[in-house]
Amino acid sequence: MVYTRIAPQHETDWLVFSSCLFLFPCVYAVIYRMWFYATVLWATSFFSCVYWIYPIHGFRRNMDLWFSKVAFFVFFGSGILYVRPLPFALIGYSGAVIIGVCFYMSHATFDSPIRNWWKFHVWFHILLMCEQFLVLHCIYHRQS
Questions:
Q1: What is the mean pLDDT of residues 48-64?
Q2: 74, 40 Cβ separation under 8 angstroms
C-alpha cells in the first residue's frame, strides 16, 4: 500500500509547532485545577501533532479530526456559558468569526497554486489558543 502525504513537510512542520501551542492553555488549566479542560487540550494537541508529523489518511487523521471536534464543542459551548462580561464577549465572538475565516481560507486555498493554506491554518491554531485562554480565564473567575 502506498501512502501519500496530504501536504509537504516544509508546510506541515509549522502545523506541528502550532498544534503544540494548545499545551499553553493546557498548563493554565492544570495550574487552576480545571482537569477536564486540561485533558481535552492535551489530547487535542497530542493527536494534532501526531497527525501533522506525517499527514496521511488513516487512523491518526481520524483521531485528530475527532478530538478537534470534541475540543471545538467543549470550548465553544463553554464560551457561550461562561464568557459573559462585555469586553470579553466582544473579543471572544469577534475572535470566533476570525477563526472561522482562517479555517475557511485554509480549506479554500489548499488546492490553490499559491500554497498559503498552511499559513491560514497556523493562524487558526494561534487564534484558537488565544480563545481557549479567554474561555479558561472566564471559567476560573466565574467559579472563584
A1: 96
A2: yes
> Among 70, 91, 102, which Cα is nearest to 135's?
91
* Residue 64 burial class via C-beta count within 10 angstroms: exposed 0-12, middle 13-18, buried 19 and up: buried
Q: Using alpha carbons, select from 40, 53, 57, 59 the residue that is nearest to residue 128.
A: 40
Amino acid letter, residue 65: L
Whether residue 74 is predicted with pLDDT greater than 90 in this model: the reply is: yes
Rounded Cα–Cα distance for residues 115 and 122 (Å):
13
- CA 127 to CA 95: how far, in whole Å? 7
Structural domain boundaries of the chain?
9-143
| Pick from 139, 119, 14, 23: nearest CA to 74 | 139
What is the rounded CA–CA span in Å between residue 25 and residue 28?
Answer: 5
C-alpha cell at 102: 482562517
Q: Say whether pTM exceeds 0.85.
A: yes
Nearest to 76 by CA among 131, 33, 14: 131
Our measurement of the distance from residue 7's CA atom to the centroid of its chain's CA atoms, rounded to an integer in Å, reads: 19
